[in-house]
Design goal:
Distance between the termini: 64 Å
Order of helices and strands: HEHEHEHEHEEH
Largest sheet: 6 strands, mixed
CATH topology: Glutaredoxin
CATH class: Alpha Beta
Strand order of the largest sheet: 1-4-3-2-5-6
Number of helices: 6
CATH superfamily: Glutaredoxin
Shape: globular
Structural class: alpha/beta
Length: about 160
């Protein structure tokens, strides 16, 4: 009986005090419409939305730069959102362990809608579908780039040039 009580206390403690990004609470958007209505918001916050996957080497290489940039934004109205395009069957086996192991704290979601051709042009008409790709969004203003960033300073310069125009 004591074991069950201690187990319950441990579970409650773990649920009450998650560490960093809780991969268990990862929001999965089954459709692009759900994603668009929850993430592609038109307000006074600048959204830095990076599309990536764990199977994409250039994506994985640049993720620490996005995390570093995210940690420097402080109280600015800038929100970094990492949008995983990982395969649905690999969310539990690859994505969640990857996020936990690397202690990513930037807001991370999964866009599980694999009908890419139906929504890629809604992100940007010029997007070929290759990743990594990044969308900046602030109000009705947007900027899109299909490239790998080389540093958090590179991301900062890209965002600064967007916000100061």
């Amino acid at each position: 009986m004591k074991f069950i009580t201690h187990l319950h206390i441990c579970i409650i403690f773990l649920l009450a005090f998650p560490k960093g990004t809780s991969a268990q609470n990862l929001r999965i958007f089954d459709t692009f419409e759900e994603f668009k209505n929850s993430i592609l918001l038109h307000n006074d916050t600048t959204y830095v939305i990076n599309f990536w996957a764990t199977w994409c080497k250039p994506c994985v290489k640049e993720l620490p730069y996005f995390e570093s940039y995210h940690r420097t934004t402080g109280k600015q109205k800038i929100k970094v959102i990492l949008v995983s395009l990982d395969f649905n069957k690999q969310i539990d086996t690859h994505l969640k362990p990857f996020l936990s192991k690397n202690h990513y704290t930037a807001h991370t979601v999964v866009l599980a809608d694999k009908n890419f051709n139906s929504w890629i042009s809604e992100i940007d008409e010029s997007w070929s579908g290759a990743i990594p790709a990044t969308l900046l969004l602030s109000g009705d203003k947007r900027s899109f780039v299909e490239k790998e960033f080389e540093s958090s300073e590179d991301i900062s310069q890209y965002v600064d040039s967007f916000t100061h125009h």
